[in-house]
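Data deposition worksheet. Section B asks for the primary sequence of the deposited chain exactly as it was used as input, without tags or linkers unless they were present during the calculation. Section C holds the resulting structure in token form. Section D is free text for depositor observations; keep each observation to a single sentence. Incomplete worksheets are returned to the depositor.
Section A, Depositor: J.P.
Section B:
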Amino acid sequence: MILKIFNAKLITPYRIIPNGYVLIQDGLIKEIGNGNIETPEAEELDARAHYVAPGFIDLHVHGGGNHDFMDNNLQGFLSIAETHAKYGTTSMFPTTLSSGKKDLIDTISTYEQATRINHSGAQFLGLHLEGPYFAMSQRGAQDPRYIRDPDPEEYQDILSRTQVIKRWSAAPELKGAIEFARYLLSKGVLPALAHTDAIYEEVVEAFENGYTLATHLYSGMSGVTRRNAFRYAGVIESAFLIDNMNVEVIADGVHLPAPLLKLIYKIKGPDRIALITDSMRAAGMPEGPSILGSLKNGLDVIIEDGVAKLPDRSSFAGSVATADLLVRNMIKLADVPLIEAVRMITKTPASIMGIADKKGTLTPGKDADLVIFDEQINIKTTIINGKVIYSKKGFNTVIN
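Section C:
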């Protein structure tokens, strides 16, 4: 199959090509350019002068469409992928919560099944295990029953069962956490620091041993702290000070207000920031009661003001963001140029996860994952591997 998208404003990492075209063949980008070309053998899609960007890559997502990956339900996995595709996500790393070993193994098994039959939603690129090796003091909404130190017998057994785990988030100050990171790297898995009370000296050691990504910056991590009357820089300050530390940002406009979004952008820049939804099952759903985590043993929450809250409204309890909202907020709240906002959810996450050779930019030879949106970042069409997965009603303009 050959597909041509024309009459488009093409977003590259560093410029916008006006009145551009993209030629797609066999699921790959074959050619991009300015103007138009004669392609009588191709189906044509008129972008109507809207933007065409690489598909959005979500490194950290728990659920959506009233499903959570920890439900261990095959159809639920597919529904989450379909829900987020409507908002521009073409690739995602399904993310777990702290749990017992059996639940985790069941999730891995369901993921492996779902990957083989997921043809109508965002692609699954690998699992992100968030926990259970966390600091109890920074557990947030993670279930305290499962919080524990890294257990070599446990994590080695889990990693021996599968090749689909691509990232594992943990608190680097815990006993055995450095050895854990080294083992992850030996298996091609990215260690990330999260839900941690580490101080600067511990973060530096962790970074040197592979913890090169800070999971949802500001959330579940230490800032400046005192020990025996002396002040110490926490994980937040460490992430800023270590130039090569990559960071995730939940740019839902609630977890991080505009001044903090601006600060992160000013210090880290678009090549070190990955925009993430960190969304739970209520993403893409109306406000009201919901559950954080699995249906079996999750936490009751209420969705209002664009975020999940504990029922007593004493604390946030999860994100309900979608990828389009992240880009929109970085532009409107943090004054980030469109090109750089898009880069933070395409090229940068692809680079962090080592898949930039296949995804993240409109480059010939890369996977034909694209999204079409208007000036307000409203998604019109989502294309995955050259196939139109979603098109807003009234915008499907593929011409034979």
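Section D:
Residues 2-53+362-399 form a domain with the Urease, subunit C; domain 1 fold (CATH 2.30.40.10).
The two ends are 11 Å apart (CA to CA).
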